Amino acid sequence: MIWDWDYAWEVFPKIVGDGLRTAVVATVLGSLVAYTLGLVLALLRRSPIRVVSGITWAFIEFIRSTPLLVQIFFLFFVLPDIGLTLDPMTTGVIALGLHYATYTAEVYRAGIEAVPPGQWEAATALNLPRRRTWTAVILPQAVPRVLPALGNYTISMLKETPLLLMIGVLEIAGVARQVGSRAFRYVEPVTIAGVLFLVLSLAASLLVRWLERRVRYRN
Amino acid sequence: MFDNIGLFVETISKGLLLTVEATLGGIVIATILSFVFGLAMLSRLRLVRAIARIYVEFWRGTSEVVQLLWIYFALPVLIGYQIMPLVAGIVVLGLNFGAYGAEIVRGAVQSVPKAQYEGCIALNLTPAQRMRRVILPQSLVEMVPPFNNLFIQLLKGSALLTMITVHEMTYQAREVLITRHVSQAATIWTIVLLFYLVLAILITFGMRLLELWAGRLVGRKPPQRGLLSALRSRRGRAAAITDAAVAGIGHTSDRSGGDR
Lengths: 219, 260
Fold this sequence. Notes:
Helix content of chain B: over 70%
Number of strands of chain B: 0
Shape of chain B: flat
Largest sheet of chain A: none
Strand content of chain B: under 5%
Helix content of chain A: over 70%
Shape of chain A: elongated
Mean pLDDT of chain B: 85
Largest sheet of chain B: none
Radius of gyration of chain B: 21 Å
Low-confidence stretches of chain B: 233-237, 246-260
Mean pLDDT of chain A: 91
Oligomer: heterodimer
CATH superfamily of chain B: MetI-like
CATH architecture of chain A: Orthogonal Bundle
């Protein structure tokens, strides 16, 4: 028997219950970190102080060019050494957020550059302080435009949450592997995990497309 | 603190060859699949388009980790024998990143101006001649930068082969070094990260040369900047196309977050 329905029904609730919740929590929290930190990186990257923008550039390139898995391991093993003992889930969220922040930074940068120069000139003409120029003129125009692109990275992140199983955070794929190893039957749990990811990412991409249409409509 | 660096570098280097093999193997398969399914998505036949679309959505939508677990744990049960981990890994990398690459090829071919097609019709070129001599050479230039990003993603993806016991660099660090030298974790992981960084830079240089070659094919003069600026050239228009292909599913428009 290649596919055992009884076994599949037995493991299904475990994968969807525990696994899905962990995956969603990690993705949501990771995205919040990535969205916030990404904006900070994008602004630092534009800093007029060359050292600051240079270091930020190097940091972004470095994080983007190296595997998330190794970064997860790095934080997991090194943070306790510097006195930060966090639970694996928090470590994982930080790693996901940090990694994706370097991508969202590029997204924000594109959004900021897409604001017409006339807006900057108008802000100067009105003698707005720099801070208000950013908070009242530039960002309100730049950020909504890039929301769909940010959403895409959240979808990507969801599909990378399985990496957390390497530090003991079991989400969809992690639970599937654990369940499979217990009964030594992997076909059903891993297939269920795959279908679940497919459904989730297709649903999420519909959401992003809807967001995209709304943003375009508003512009 | 630094006395073991020689040992660390040596141990990680033992995994270097496997990382390179997995990455190159993945790149070859991914590139072939990108062109096959990218062009299939532009086919006039509905069935061909549908098959290509299903391939792309399937391999992008299911997580790479799940694909690895499936091919490593589930497939042997179905076919009756265990595939070599490295082969399984290369196949998954190729199939997974080929799906993203197909979107790049499709996008680049579609970005060739319509007038070029009209010109081909006016010159009475056959569809095959049109594709080979006019459309592909022009879209090739557009493809190289986003493929550069994709290949770096693939290199990063090769670290996941640790999970299916391929003894590549991450495995060497995690399973061989960390277990014995956990107090020097910072040094070990930094070395691993630097190894990946160097490989990523090498990929970028290679792709930069390819871009110059592809540019010459369509009579584009090499830009005045030197090779060192290659690192920065991954940005710009390429980012928009790659972001759209890599990030999500379906056709995300280059306009919403596009670099302009």
